[in-house]
């Protein structure tokens, strides 16, 4: 029996693909960053860094062609290669966008269509165990339904709630669908960890509302009852009681790891009229992650962070060190933390405008640049992994996730693990409602 690597050191290859310009322009980061042409090189770079875990997934808009119609050609090549390399994917199935034929996140058919796609993926790649079915549900709903930036490009509370309930329902149905195929699957939610600071005493009220709203996606996903004010907010903006009860009946927390994403832009200054601006880092990752852990009591993973390499060349390295210090602080506070991620492997394109403008601007955020040359933060991350990999699993509050290596997926002990998970799920879990 091969034990999986202990602490999850990861990176990611971003497959964001929202639409802008009324759905006419697809902001496909895999295309913009050259991954479709350089995917073999990219996987080699992951190995070069000493990384075993990769946040990765096929582009949804290219793979989901219609109801029960899929194009697996790219996924077959890439996931076959990942398996041969014994790299462990954390499969990101929906990252900010849907195929043109679905439209956008206002479409009530999306959750069922996506769940069928997730189950079909799991059936085609049964050796895959780790999933992030829907990435950053809260941010996707905010940017698409409230800020008017992506996809439906609407700007109302009703559009936000509609997008949110469809995104979270899609995530819940997908988890249930994957578990039917892979009963020992584990789900690492990648959700933005936010905080809203009041500029002055008159801004306390709108800041409190924003700080309650930030939890909605995970509250619904984990079946945690929202507070009375948020319940009224959901009901006033289009969620029905039956829809709310669906989320309360589908509690899959015991299959989940809470992934917290943290960037310099995750904290906000709230004005008395409810308007906001970026505040920069005030609390930091450890303080905000403790707030989320206190609410959900789940194992934690730092699933995304980065910073632009600036003119000095060491800005991203200092940010990496700061984030790692925060991970250790979370661990020392007694929170079970299982992993850390620099996101992403290569530089990104047009995130300086949050993918709102198709400018082709390269953002120096990666461990490698777009010519696949390593950046200083890549060198620093490889050293951090080498120095800490063997230390953290010996610490009692750093859990080791029971991950089956791809090369071991067909071994007898791995089959027994899946059979045991299947039996346990059916003996202890209430029947899932998939309405």
Spatial shape: globular
The overall number of domains is: 1
Continuous helix count: 15
Q: If you compute it from the alpha carbons, what radius of gyration comes out, rounded to the nearest whole angstrom?
A: 20 Å
Q: Which class best fits the helix and strand makeup?
A: alpha/beta
Fraction of residues in helix:
40-55%
CATH hierarchy class name: Alpha Beta
**Low-confidence stretches at least 5 residues in length (pLDDT < 50)?**
430-435
Largest sheet: 8 strands, parallel, barrel
Kindly report the average pLDDT value: 94
Q: What is the correct CATH architecture?
A: Alpha-Beta Barrel
- Percentage beta strand: 15-25%
Pfam family, one: Glyco_hydro_1
InterPro entries: GH (IPR017853), Glyco_hydro_1 (IPR001360), Glycosyl_Hydrolase_39 (IPR051923)
Protein name: Family 1 glycosylhydrolase
Organism: Noviherbaspirillum album
Write up this protein.
The strands form 5 sheets. Strands 1-4-7-8-9-11-14-15 form an 8-stranded parallel beta barrel, surrounded by 5 helices. A 3-stranded mixed beta sheet has the order 10-12-13. Strands 2-3 form a two-stranded antiparallel sheet. The chain is of the alpha/beta class. 47% of the residues are buried. It contains 15 helices and 17 strands. Helix 13 links the parallel strand 14 and strand 15 (337-343). The longest helix is centred in the middle third of the chain and has 25 residues, at 157-181. 41% of the residues lie in helices and 16% in strands. The chain has helices at residues 29-32, 35-48, 60-63, 73-85, 110-124, 137-146, 157-181, 204-213, 216-221, 228-236, 241-249, 285-296, 315-332, 376-388, 412-428, and strands at 8-12, 19-20, 25-26, 53-56, 64-66, 69-70, 88-94, 130-134, 186-192, 195-198, 256-261, 267-270, 276-278, 300-304, 337-343, 348-349, 362-363. The protein has one domain (8-428): Glycosidases (TIM Barrel). Helix 2 (35-48) packs parallel to helix 4.
């Amino acid at each position: 029996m091969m034990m999986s690597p202990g602490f999850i050191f990861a990176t990611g290859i971003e497959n964001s693909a929202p639409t802008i310009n009324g759905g006419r322009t697809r902001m496909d980061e895999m295309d913009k960053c050259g991954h479709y042409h350089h995917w073999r090189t990219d996987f080699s770079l992951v190995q070069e860094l000493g990384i075993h875990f990769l946040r990765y997934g096929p582009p949804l808009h290219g793979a989901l062609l219609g109801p029960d119609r899929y194009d697996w050609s790219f996924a077959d090549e890439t996931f076959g290669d990942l398996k041969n390399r014994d790299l462990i994917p954390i499969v990101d199935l929906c990252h900010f966008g849907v195929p043109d034929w679905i439209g956008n996140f206002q479409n009530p058919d999306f959750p069922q269509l996506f769940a069928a796609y997730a189950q079909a993926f799991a059936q085609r790649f049964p050796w895959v165990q780790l999933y992030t079915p829907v990435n950053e549900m809260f941010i996707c709903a905010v940017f698409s339904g409230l800020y008017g930036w992506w996809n439906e490009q609407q700007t109302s509370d009703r559009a936000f709630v509609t997008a949110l309930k469809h995104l979270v329902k899609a995530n819940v149905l997908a988890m249930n669908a994957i578990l039917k195929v892979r009963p020992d699957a584990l789900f690492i939610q990648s959700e933005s960890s936010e905080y809203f600071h009041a500029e002055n005493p008159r801004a306390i009220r709108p800041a409190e509302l924003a700080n309650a709203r930030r939890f909605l996606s995970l509250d619904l996903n984990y079946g945690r009852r929202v507070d009375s004010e948020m319940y009224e907010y959901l009901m006033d903006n289009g969620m029905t009681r039956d829809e709310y009860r669906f989320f309360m009946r589908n509690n899959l927390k015991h299959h989940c790891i809470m992934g917290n994403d943290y960037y310099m832009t995750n904290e906000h200054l709230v004005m008395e009229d409810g308007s906001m601006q970026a505040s920069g880092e005030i609390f930091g990752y450890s303080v905000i992650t403790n707030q989320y852990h206190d609410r959900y009591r789940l194992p934690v993973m730092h699933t995304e962070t980065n910073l632009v390499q600036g003119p000095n060349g060491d800005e991203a390295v200092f940010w990496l060190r700061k984030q790692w210090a925060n991970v250790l602080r979370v661990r020392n506070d007694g929170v079970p933390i299982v992993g850390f991620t620099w996101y992403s492997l290569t530089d990104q394109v047009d995130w300086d405008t949050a993918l709102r403008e198709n400018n082709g601007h390269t953002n120096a955020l990666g461990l490698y640049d777009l010519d696949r040359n390593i950046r200083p933060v890549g060198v620093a991350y490889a050293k951090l992994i080498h120095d800490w990999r063997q230390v953290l699993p010996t610490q009692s509050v750093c859990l080791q996730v029971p991950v089956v290596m791809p090369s071991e997926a067909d071994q007898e002990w791995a089959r027994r693990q899946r059979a045991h998970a299947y039996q346990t799920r059916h003996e202890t879990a209430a029947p899932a409602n998939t309405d």
